[in-house]
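User: Need the bound-state model for magnesium ion:
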Amino acid sequence: MADKKPMPVHVAVIMDGNGRWAELNKVTKLQGHNQGMWAMKEIIKKSDVMGIKYLTVYAFSTENWKRSQEEVGGIFRLLVKFVGSELQELDDNNVKVNILGDWHDKLPEDAKASVQKALDTTKDNTGLVFNIALNYGSRAEIVRAVNFIMTHYDPSTEISEEDISRALYTGDENGNIPDPDLIIRTSGEERLSNFLLWQAAYSEFAFTDTLWPDFTPEEYESMIEEYRTRERRYGGR
Ligand code: IPE
Ligand code: IPE
Ligand code: MG
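Assistant: Bound-state model below.
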């Protein structure tokens, strides 16, 4: 314990494996997503208890629209259900919800209303910052940032890294979320799938074969403890 490094400030999670969990357990894919939602709830609580300041979860990617209408519709119904049953408790725990991604456009109306309600209810909270990447894609985010800069900056301005960071979803509009210290992906896949490409420049990665619905707070804690043994160098030494 003596030379443990600091806790991560920001942990980002690619919650993967709901479909395979469903197949393995012989239930519908939607039941897999439903089970995954409860796993997520436990990870939110655990993050809070451990004193992590920012938790970001990848809930729905810009590429996930390629899935069947039935699955996509079901995922957004689960979102509505989650906000309905959990928002009060999140608010009681001083959790602040942010959305990373374009949720104004393509989402079903009731899902948009739920998102709006979650944002409004928790906007003044000062505890755990819980970022939901929803209709999120990192390349789309960067393109959007470039377009923002082109329309809002004088053409003679020399653009800095900070300017780009501030124009991303994680930037000014959501209180300038620091880059993730640790990115966890479940289900044995070892790829980013268009998640936080810019922000992950110096992130540490941790992978587990556990399928997301089976991911427990205990495994989460042990991954964080393992992270705390790592030496981060940022190109120095
Ligand atoms: C992750 O689980 C959840 C979403 C992408 C919404 P998957 O549905 O991708 O699960 P697998 O990868 O098919 O097992
Ligand atoms: C990444 O998982 C997106 C989310 C977890 C929401 P996917 O299952 O969509 O990614 P790929 O297709 O395996 O790369
Ligand atoms: Mg997957």
